[in-house]
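Dear support,

Our group has been running a series of protein-ligand predictions, and this particular one with zinc ion is the one our PI (initials K.S.) wants archived with full inputs and outputs. We had some confusion internally about which version of the output was final, so please treat the block below as the authoritative record. The input we submitted was:
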Amino acid sequence: MWISERSILVRTLTAALAGGTLLAVSGCSTLRSDAKALMDFGDRHGESTVFRGLGESDGYLPSGTSLSPFDAVHPALTNLDPALRAALRSAAADAQEDGIRMVVTSGWRSAPYQKSLLDNAVRTYASEDEARRWVNTPERSTHVSGDAVDIGPTDADSWLAQHGERYGLCQTYANEMWHFELATVPGGSCPAQIDDASVG
Ligand SMILES: [Zn+2]
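Confirmed final output from the archive:
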């Protein structure tokens, strides 16, 4: 299973690079592209085995894959706070009306999955402080509590940054344009962003 997932990842990345559409395929912002490219490099070169043993029941989504906000099966979505999930679906439907297709690149995560992401980031950056700017601890992560979603691709991130307040959805970290939480009431004002995950 690991081997087949890895070959899918390599094929996806190869196709994406060949087509010059890495950002669109991975649903990453420029900043995320930097972080993710480093992690994907680690995966491709067999340096990262930290995700071995993780599966759907952890909310695990292999790199380069995503879910429809309307998916009703995958724990990454079914274990989200129901109010967040409803707000997300409402936003996704309206974005679709504007010609924007919204996908979920990460949602609820188990604590072991979050720990694996942090371990992988520490390895990638060779710095715990830098890793913590991008990946929170299992104890603090709002993904683990079911209160956060990562959205892609970039045009959907931009749409949601612009219109999210209608649904109560806010970009909470200044360095993660893809990360949204239900942080105000529908039609309310989003709180000031915090710099990064190491602060919050
Ligand atoms: Zn996130």
